[in-house]
Design goal:
about 775 residues; alpha+beta; Immunoglobulin-like; 18 helices; elongated; Putative glutamine amidotransferase domain-containing protein; transmembrane helix
Length: about 775
């Protein structure tokens, strides 16, 4: 930066002014008497006055000074994108982006020579990480990723505390990592991205992104969404296929990509063939003139069930509902049904003429139960257990401790009154939903809801409806029955519907039998959603199915008391709709239930590690589903080439029960991770599985156009600017005018320059020449 107005001999200012004033007075007197026109006199006087002023300034020694970067004292980084996206050939059949860039990176280029004179230049190459480079002759543009943000973060750490003038970043901006909140952009030196490549590209079709949504809809519980981008080809139809891990085609769709949007979505619904980790691929067909083929396919991991999930069914009496529910879940390998059914109440309901000796219930006489301590007592209800794992499970009835109850994932209460449970057991059920994250379904009947005495209990508090004080069951008038209809919210829930289309679902609802009884309740609680209702012949409607989130879990109220009527018509309608409805409902109950050991795989935070790193997060709970510290984990990753990699997981400093491991792999394909956990005492806690699909080249070629918005964002965050390739020479030449960490002051006396005297003499000669040209004296 140059500053003017400096004087080397200010003590001569008075003499200079006096001499100039004398000369100016003489000049005015002389031209005032001249017999010329006013215009010519003014022009000649101005030239001579300017020359005299320049000579007078020489007495005070005028100086030009300023501040400039000290040559060689500041660092300047030159970073070049060495990824495969630089192999893209822009339209016109010319050079690739890398070939065009290599011409600009020659050591003898003008901008590098000038930059080297002003700064201490450090050279780097960026692909999946930052590399030192002696020069740029060895660039091969073979990197499988472009870690621009992580590379800039590494530069910031390397140069921290050093005087850095800036960073020239040669790239097309197609980064495979994103902005990281952990990167302090205020510490990054000014970045000057140099955009490499044309805006227009050759025609290309790519699978830009893929996502999975898992539902409880039995026919197709997994929905795969794939965003298809068509670049440079205008409006077109693209054939998209869904493949399994063996590359067998599952389904094919044709999507229409409009010229204006360039993006269309292909939607597939599929039912995975086996439980556990499944891998699916979506591939889009490009044309013969396809610019890049590496971005035509993407994969995704689907975890089809973390079960088996255990469901505890508690009923106050034998009924048809348990029969249909048990039949519905019999063939589902993800669900295990355990029944606890009361077949007789305390003795007041079964009065015997002769009790005999002892306290044992005479219903069990003759069954070789002579042990007084284990025999069913006459003053206790008679319970039967169905589907238990061993003789000890539920031997004493409903669980009496949290760790015993929390071994289940969902509870179904069917026509069993609140008095069946102790106050501690009622509180445990509330904790089962709110803290453990389990699911609770209360089915209708005379022993349910307000009629069952739940209004002022913890269980009544977690239900999605308010219980009225004197509520009684509603019975259909005139024998016409209640017809079931879905609400707007019910139509939106996959687990409530049983058919794929609205017309088919309407027909199914119209063919359902009429129900005769429904439990009466009050209003819905805040946050609860009414999914179905029943209406009688007069049009009066009442809630039939209501659900809500409660704490970490969820609860639902099935208010129809005679759902079993639906199952009795199976022979007439020849379908298994009731069993399907039960399966979908139970799957909804257990959909988000935490497991003792859970694994989650995410991309590692950008700016902290390489672009190929995956963060494996494992959460471990104890028997009461509290976060467990001091657990021992065995984390094994199986790579696509069959290798097994053992990882160590470290406890997270911020979240109790969370353990974190990192895996770095550049091998493309599906990766599977398995976790086995043990408690502090060595007791096994269980295991889980997860996985991800590594696709470095699909990420690298996700977009082909130059990503100018990203480059402008980086420049704005760091105080730099985007530089065009053909403006590089002028930009480097102007760097000495920019603010730099290490600078020096320079001063240059103007009167030492020949140009200064040349100017003064030119003004005097010009005045003389003008007079002679006009023939003036």
């Amino acid at each position: 930066m140059t500053e003017w107005g400096l004087w080397g001999a200010p003590e001569w200012a008075g003499a200079a002014i006096v001499l100039f004033a004398i000369g100016l007075a003489a000049l005015l007197w002389s031209y005032g008497r001249a017999p010329w026109s006013l215009g010519w006199r003014a022009a000649c006087a101005a030239l001579k006055a300017t020359g005299l002023a320049a000579l007078a300034l020489c007495l005070v020694e005028p100086l030009a000074g300023g501040v400039r970067p000290r040559p060689g004292a500041n660092l300047f980084a030159v970073a070049v994108d060495n990824s495969q996206s630089m192999r893209v050939r822009d339209p016109g059949g010319g050079k690739t982006r890398g070939e065009e860039l290599q011409q600009m990176l020659l050591a003898e280029s003008r901008w590098q020579t000038r930059l080297g004179r002003q700064f201490d230049v450090r050279r780097f190459a960026i692909d999946h990480r930052l590399h030192d480079a002696k020069d740029f002759t060895g660039l091969d543009f073979a990197g499988e990723a472009t870690g621009l943000v992580s590379g800039l973060g590494e530069l910031e750490r390397r140069f921290r505390g050093l005087p850095v003038g800036g960073v020239l970043l040669f790239t097309d901006g197609n980064s495979t990592d994103a902005f990281s909140e952990s990167l302090d952009w205020s510490g990054v030196p000014p970045v000057y991205p140099v955009a490499v490549g044309a805006h227009d590209v050759l025609p290309d079709v790519c699978v830009e992104s893929i996502s999975v949504r898992q539902t409880n809809f039995e026919t197709a519980p997994v929905t795969v969404h794939a965003d298809i981008r068509s670049t440079g080809a205008g409006e077109r139809d693209v054939q998209v296929r869904l493949l399994d891990e063996q590359s067998s085609t599952i389904d094919t769709k044709t999507v229409h990509v409009r010229a204006g949007s360039e993006v269309a979505t292909a939607r597939f619904q599929v039912r995975p063939e086996h439980a556990g980790v499944n891998v699916f691929y979506v591939t889009a067909a490009g044309g013969a003139d396809e610019a890049v083929e590496a971005n035509n396919t993407r994969g995704v991991v689907v975890d089809n069930g973390k079960g088996p999930f255990r469901v505890l069914y508690v009923s106050g009496r034998p009924n048809w509902d348990f029969k249909f529910l048990r039949r519905a879940l019999a063939d589902d390998d993800q669900l295990e049904l355990v029944g606890l059914i009361r077949i007789a109440n305390r003795e007041p309901k079964f009065t015997f003429r002769r009790r005999g000796e002892g306290s044992g219930n005479q219903l069990f006489d003759g069954f070789n139960r002579d042990d007084e301590d284990t025999a069913e007592r006459y003053d206790e209800p008679v319970l039967t257990r169905i589907g238990t794992r061993d003789e000890q499970e539920l031997r004493d009835g409903f669980p009496k401790s949290a760790d015993e109850l929390y071994a289940y994932d969902a509870i179904v209460l069917d026509d069993v009154e609140a008095e069946f449970f102790s106050p501690d057991q009622l509180a445990m059920i509330e904790g089962f939903v709110s803290r453990r994250g389990g699911g609770l379904l209360m089915a209708g009947g005379g022993g349910s809801f307000a009629e069952g005495g739940y209004r002022l209990t913890p269980v009544g508090g977690l239900l999605p409806v308010y219980l009225e004080r004197d509520a009684a069951d509603r019975r259909a008038a005139g024998g016409s029955g209640f017809r079931l209809v879905l609400t707007r919210e019910g139509w939106l829930q996959d687990w409530v519907r049983l058919r794929k289309t609205q017309d088919e679902e309407q027909a199914r609802l119209g063919g359902m039998p009429a129900f005769q009884t429904s439990n009466a309740v009050g209003n819905l609680k805040p946050g609860a959603v009414e999914l179905a209702r029943v209406a009688d012949a007069s049009g009066a409607a009442h809630p039939a199915l209501v659900a809500q989130r409660f704490g970490r879990g969820r609860s639902a109220a099935l208010l129809v008391a005679d759902v079993w009527r639906w199952g009795l018509r199976r022979a007439e309608v020849d379908n298994d709709d009731l069993e399907k409805s039960w399966r979908q409902t139970i799957r909804w109950l257990v959909a988000d239930v935490p497991r003792p050991v859970e694994v989650e795989v995410d991309a590692a935070p950008d700016g902290q590690t390489s672009a190929h790193a995956q963060l494996i997060k494992v959460r471990v709970h104890d028997a009461e589903y509290l976060p467990l510290e001091n657990a021992t984990l065995q984390v094994t990753v199986r790579t696509p080439d069959g290798r097994q990699v053992k990882l160590s997981a470290e406890a997270d400093d911020e979240e109790a029960g969370l353990y974190v491991a990192q895996h770095h792999s550049r091998t493309p394909g599906p990766h599977r991770v398995s976790v086995e956990a043990a408690g502090p005492d060595g007791s096994p806690l269980g295991g889980c599985e997860g996985g991800w699909v590594a696709e470095p080249l699909a990420d690298e070629f996700r977009r082909l156009r130059v990503n100018r918005p990203l480059l402008e964002d980086i420049a704005a965050r760091t105080g730099g600017q985007v530089v065009e390739l053909d403006e590089l020479d002028g930009f480097v030449a102007g760097l000495e005018q920019r603010k730099m960490p290490v600078t020096e002051t320079w001063i240059n006396p103007l009167w030492h320059h020949p140009a200064f005297f040349t100017f003064a003499i030119a003004c005097l000669i010009g005045e003389w020449g003008l007079r002679r040209w006009k023939g003036l004296a």
